[in-house]
Structure formats: structure tokens, C-alpha cells
Design brief:
The chain is of the alpha+beta class. The chain has one domain (about 25-200): Sortase, Chain: A, CATH 2.40.260. It has four helices and ten strands, in the order H-H-H-E-E-E-E-E-E-E-E-H-E-E. Strands 1-2-3-4-9-10-6-5 form an eight-stranded mixed beta barrel. The protein is globular, with a radius of gyration of 19 Å.
């Protein structure tokens, strides 16, 4: 009887895992009033464009941990990296490290820090900073854009805008978050802030 009950529980768990839809984190939406009123503020000891010198930024995010604590692109942005699991932080100077990602996945809303992801181009250098002060440098290699088949449901398939090929949400996740660094934010189009997804990959 006990063995039968155990088999029944295991079967339910397996069925839920098999049938539950994989959802990519939405990185678009309406700008919260508090955020829109705040605006983007310059960091202390920042340069004329509001970005702190690299050494100053490294010191500011060094907390002694072995975790990723910052991401820096010269003349573009200096963002603190937060451990937010699978949720997306809303802020001008912070991004979230995607908990599900097998690589360094960085998430931000397109109305906040993610707005600058659009300015990333192949060849740009990405500096990832750890709490120990360690720095790793990556180079942007590929930029992909995907249209959501259902902008309200990121578990639905996506369509690669360059090739027209369709891919499942889980397949897209596996493809985008395999190695190096991946930036993700939403694409706004036709009045829809979650029209699609932008992925910038660096290795």
C-alpha cells in the first residue's frame, strides 16, 4: 500500500513537470510612477555622461563575495547586478542575474536599465565584476530579436524576426542561455511593450 501511494505521488510530480509550461521572464511593461518621476541619476564620482570611472565602479560593487555584482560597458552603462532569481528588478542602474540561466544571464526592463541594451553592438567589450574585485571581459558576438506569438504569455512560442523560424519558450531559453553573458530585455512595437524579446550575447 505504501509503495502504491509513493508511486502515485511520484507520478503526479512527474506529470506536473512534464505538462507545466516553461515561461521566459517578461522584461517590459508600464513604467511605474515612482520610477518615471525618479529618472536616471548619475552615480557619485561619475563622468560627464553619468558613468563612473571603471576603477571607482569596481570598488563600489566589491563586497568580498564570489558572486557577480556589477556589469560595465565603457561610455554606455555601469550597472549593479542583483540576485533576483527569475524576477526582473525595476531600476535605472540595476539589472537582475537570471536564476535559471546556465550562464551569466542579465535581465532588465526595457523602460529602465534594459533601455541601454539596444545600444550594445558586436565587438563591444563587456566587463563582468565579482564581489572579490575580479573582472572578466567578454565581447558582444550576436544580437537576436524574437517576436512573441502571444505578448501576454511568454510560455507561448517565439518567432525569430531575422529568419522567421518559430521556437518554443524552453528551446529559446536553452539557445540563449548556454554560455558567456546574455542580456535580455523586451522589444516595444505597435504599442505593445512586450511585443518581443531582445537578446545580446557576449563570449
Amino acid at each position: 500500500m505504501r509503495a502504491t501511494y509513493r508511486f502515485f505521488i511520484i507520478s503526479i510530480i512527474a506529470l506536473n513537470l512534464f505538462t507545466s509550461a516553461f515561461t521566459l521572464p517578461p522584461t517590459g511593461g508600464t513604467v511605474p510612477a515612482a520610477l518615471s518621476n525618479l529618472g536616471q541619476t548619475a552615480t557619485t564620482s561619475s563622468t560627464a555622461n553619468g558613468i563612473p570611472p571603471f576603477k571607482v565602479f569596481v570598488e563600489s560593487v566589491s563586497d568580498g563575495s564570489n558572486q557577480v555584482t556589477g556589469v560595465y560597458v565603457e561610455d554606455l552603462f555601469a550597472y549593479r547586478v542583483l540576485k533576483t532569481g527569475n524576477t526582473v528588478p525595476g531600476g535605472w542602474n540595476v539589472v537582475g542575474q537570471y536564476g535559471r540561466a546556465r550562464n551569466i544571464g542579465l535581465l532588465a526592463h526595457n523602460y529602465a536599465a534594459g533601455a541601454k541594451f539596444y545600444a550594445l553592438t558586436p565587438g563591444m567589450k563587456i566587463k563582468i565584476i565579482y564581489g572579490t574585485g575580479r573582472v572578466r571581459t567578454f565581447t558582444v558576438k550576436k544580437i537576436d530579436r524574437y517576436q512573441a506569438s502571444d505578448p501576454q504569455d511568454f510560455s507561448a512560442p517565439f518567432i525569430h524576426t531575422q529568419s522567421g523560424k518559430q521556437i518554443s519558450a524552453k528551446g529559446l531559453f536553452k539557445s540563449m542561455y548556454s554560455s558567456g553573458v546574455t542580456f535580455q530585455t523586451c522589444i516595444t512595437k505597435d504599442g505593445t511593450s512586450t511585443w518581443g524579446l531582445l537578446f545580446v550575447r557576449a563570449k
